[in-house]
Amino acid sequence: PATEVAEVSDGSAALAHGAAEIDMIFLDYLLPDTKGIDLIAPLAGRWPRAGICLMTGQGDEEIAKQSIQRGAVDYLPKRNLTLPALARVVETGCKMAQMRWQLEEKREDLSMFSEVLVHDLKAPIRSMRFLVRKLQEDLAEGTATDIGRDVQLIGKSADRLHDLVTSLAGHIHYDSETSEEEVAASALVEEASQMLLAEIERSGAQITSEGEAKVTCHVPQIVQLLQNLIGNAIKYAGQAPPRITIRCRDTPEGVHLEVEDSGIGVPPEYRETIFQPFKRLPVAASIPGTGLGLATCRKIVDRHGGRIWCDPDTQEGTRIHLTLPHKSQSLARTG
Fold first, then answer.
1. CA angle, corner 29, sides to 28 and 33, nearest 5?
2. Pair type for strands 243-251 and 206-210
3. Residue 132 pLDDT grade (very low, low, confident, very high; cuts 50, 70, 90)
4. Secondary element (H or E) of residue 309
5. How far apart are CA 183 and CA 178, in angstroms?
């Protein structure tokens, strides 16, 4: 694959760099405005999947130790800067950074899973236990009407538990490695819509796809992302039949996808938090859901090195933007 190299002169310029995804960062120990070692953590926060290698003029064991402790994947004295050494650092550094990022993702998923076990899963379980006791009482009394109602409510609680576990599993298991393919965005929209035929027919939803662009991606994941966004647009359509428009275009940053609907919308104060796990709108309390759909969308986009956000200026309905970068192997150097 092609390699792109970007160079900046100081720490401020490095943090302001506009690259959506960087694979490797070579960082000088001494920079005009700061020490490179103090930039390791901010750069790792800006590009969590990037490997960072600190470089110094002479080499110092204490600096090497501190750089690794702060998150660098390697340390290289400039006197050892040869082409084979550079190739080794890039290869091992990228692999180590990817492994570190995946481990952090797993840690966050485990923390989230624990939160679900403690809170969300307990509610339907408590409900089912209560209903089973009620069913036992009604069976003893032989009241057929009450028995039928109890069975129906137990079934609803079981469905809620199933949906929650399914949603959680889908959110956690997007770490499986699948090959990337180049596919038309319209084909992705069509496949996602096929998954929602029952919901589309029941709601009378109209889905329009505009623009043509090729997307290089893990196809099943992007189909799931679009399925979540279209499904949300249908779920939160309000009283009128859903009207959903999906636009796609090429930009210098990458392929830009836009999903716009005519539904109840997202209040401005919630537009930055809706992609966090379990963050649901107050108006959604009566609508079934787990609060993981948009969090899963963000995770998929993050793993593609892209960006997703809710339009801050939309007055009616909701407009979700996402960008998927044009694929290339990036190499950045600071200093």
1. 90
2. parallel
3. confident
4. strand 307-310
5. 15
Q: Is the pTM of this model over 0.85?
A: no
Residue 209 CA to residue 301 CA, distance in Å, equals 20
CA–CA distance, 250 with 325 (Å, rounded to integer): 10
How far is residue 296's CA from residue 97's CA, in Å, rounded to a whole number? 22
| Segment holding 42, helix H or strand E | helix 36-46
Quick one: which of 226, 232, 228 has its CA closest to 209? 226
Identify the helix (H) or strand (E) that includes residue 108. helix 83-118
The tokens describing 314, both together, are 């939309």
Asked if residue 72 has pLDDT above 80, the reply is: yes
Q: Average pLDDT of 262-283?
A: 76
Bridge-based pairing state of the strands 214-217 and 254-261: unpaired
Q: Is 173 exposed, middle or buried (0-12, 13-18, 19+ CB in 10 A)?
A: exposed
Token pair listed for 274 = 């809706």
SS3 sequence of 156-172: HHHHHHHHHHHHHHHHH
- In this prediction, residue 39 carries a pLDDT of 92
The closest alpha carbon to 219, from 248, 269, 182, belongs to 182
> Rounded to an integer, what distance in angstroms lies between the CA atom of residue 134 and that of residue 130?
6
- Short-list 113, 114, 152, 110, CA closest to 131: 152
